[in-house]
Design goal:
The structure is a homodimer.
Chain A (H helix, E strand, L loop, with lengths): L8 H20 L5 H11 L6 H12 L9 H24 L4 E2 L2 E2 L1 H5 L1 H20 L4 H23 L8 H26 L4 H28 L2 H4 L5 H4 L5 H9 L2 H12 L3 H10 L2 H19 L8 H14 L3
Antiparallel strand pairs in A: 1-2
């Protein structure tokens, strides 16, 4: 990602930081057992955009004066949020029966659900262990809260699978919990560790949470509309697993009669092409996309003034990418 | 369990402590979402012997003078180790396709693997969050190490399923990691929080680890020999899932020709009755049981002098129960 950033001192600091975080991540997961290492090396191949660690580092640098460095705790938090994210990917792939992730095979596909369950547990455990290495109880407490909330979001989503009455408010509540709180915490903790004010920390958390919600809507759209070759992971999982996503919810709420019925039937029959046709015709796909764009605009409007040169532009650029991405 | 303890002030303190730990456990898991609470209430029904929290409390009281109280951190650690244990039960039941636990249905049987995976994650996350509430980074770091080790043990065990060459050393290494370190940490941290010496802490950790290993051998024997009605959970899971346990390993190592072959064939065919016959005849079941008893005797011999009246007797009694139990 850093290659696409403008060529300046900030970009260099972020690239250096991400490289340190990668090393920290890999070192944390080094085991005395080859069987465990082999699985962790596989998971490291899932590493992609590094959105969450990037946000920790950029948020930290944004509230640090030019020439000042990040704290070692920034790297630890960046590694921890990425490891939590990886654990959720491994377990989500079990929940979704997904076979492809980052253009490679998933752990559950390659090694079975049992190994994927336990590998995800190993990643969660290591995430908490890595976080504990910072020696700051407030970090452990906050990230524990975040993962509690994340799991609650997943459990509520599971309890509403195949439930055609799922409304917009509940959808946003689930998404906030399962996706947005972690992204929000990345921004919040990066900012907090840089010694920013309470108002700056709160504003950055809100920025991150908005990015997280928009990110999830874009993920939903890619799952509905994308093809595996471009997206690089199994798609059509939401329909297959009975997860109602925003375009479906908007269509059901704002259409009547035959149009509404056609969507319900396509969802029930897990008929992706039919669902795409009816949601496109009704404008529900465009409406969901517009919602994601509006949330990103909200995020950008609420972004506080930062201290370091170029950092605000970079945060705005990261926000734009959330809805522009094709994978 | 406390009802079976001698009627004295120590027993009363333990009973009061376990009651506080139950409240802490239930409060920690209270969610704003009924769907989440319902699942947690189900898990609370798994609560049985409370071996691990009991060991935290007894270890703490053993190194506290008569009349002195435990610290609030004792309750937090006791609740945390029990919650970690519950998380492993929920995920183990997924790995083992188990249908019965504590005479009730498992979460995976009732609600599917997906919900069980996510509920286990919620329990792990809450365990770390509960631990973080103590505000002591050393506790987080130690328990993070413990759960890393536990998951490694499970991953190594999974990698050796259906592997008839699994030897005794590797078996004990797996058991130490997946079961014994958590029991050892319960004793270690209970003792440490009471302000005991480094030698006392180390001795109590070794005591707990020995109990954990003996506990696992007894579990293996119950899985092989017990019936579901008595044990209260699905049995025969080890054979079904290709997990070689100590009686099988001892038989394969110490028998030749037709006797050895008969066991290998029974394991391959997952034929429980045939396996029980051949392992009984060769004395391998008795040998495994004798090993568990010897480990408990080792544990008892290594038990340090304690400070509080009756506490040493109680620890010895808890050690005896590990191999005497039928469920």
């Amino acid at each position: 990602m850093s290659a696409a950033f403008p060529d300046n001192a900030l970009a260099a600091d972020i690239a250096a930081g991400l490289s340190r975080v990668e090393t920290l991540f890999d070192t944390q997961l080094t085991s005395a057992f080859p069987a465990v290492n082999e699985l962790c090396r596989h998971v490291e191949r899932y590493r992609g955009k590094m959105l969450r660690p990037t946000l920790v580092l950029v948020s930290g640098l944004a509230f640090t004066a030019d020439g000042e460095s990040l704290r070692p705790e920034h790297d630890i938090v960046a590694g921890t949020v990425e490891m939590i994210h990886m654990a959720t990917l491994v377990h989500d792939d079990v929940l979704d029966d997904a076979e492809v992730r980052r253009r490679g095979e998933t752990v559950n596909f390659l090694r079975g659900n049992e190994t994927a369950v336990m590998l995800g547990d190993y990643l969660i455990s290591n995430a908490f262990h890595l976080c504990s290495r910072a020696g700051d109880p407030a970090l452990n407490l906050r990230l524990g809260e975040v993962t509690n909330t994340l799991c609650e979001g997943e459990l509520v989503q599971l309890s509403r699978r195949h439930d055609l009455s799922l409304d917009e408010n509940t959808y946003f509540e689930i998404v906030r919990r399962k996706t947005a709180v972690l992204v929000g915490a990345a921004c919040e903790l990066g900012t907090k560790l840089a010694g920013a004010t309470a108002a700056e920390i709160a504003a950055m958390r809100a920025f991150g949470e908005n990015l997280g919600v928009a990110f999830q809507i874009q993920d939903d759209l890619l799952d509905l509309l994308g093809d595996e070759a471009t997206v690089g992971k199994s798609i059509g999982r939401d329909l297959e697993k009975g997860k109602l996503t925003l375009p479906m919810i908007l269509h059901i709420a704002h259409n009547q009669g035959a149009d509404r019925l056609a969507a319900l039937e396509a969802i029930d029959a897990k008929d992706g092409p039919a669902l795409r046709r009816v949601l496109t015709r009704s404008g529900s796909i465009d409406a969901a996309r517009a919602r994601a764009v509006a949330i990103v605009e909200d995020a950008k409007r609420g972004l506080p003034q930062t201290r370091r040169a170029h950092s605000r532009e970079l945060l705005l650029e990261l926000a734009n990418r959330v809805v522009a991405r094709e994978s």
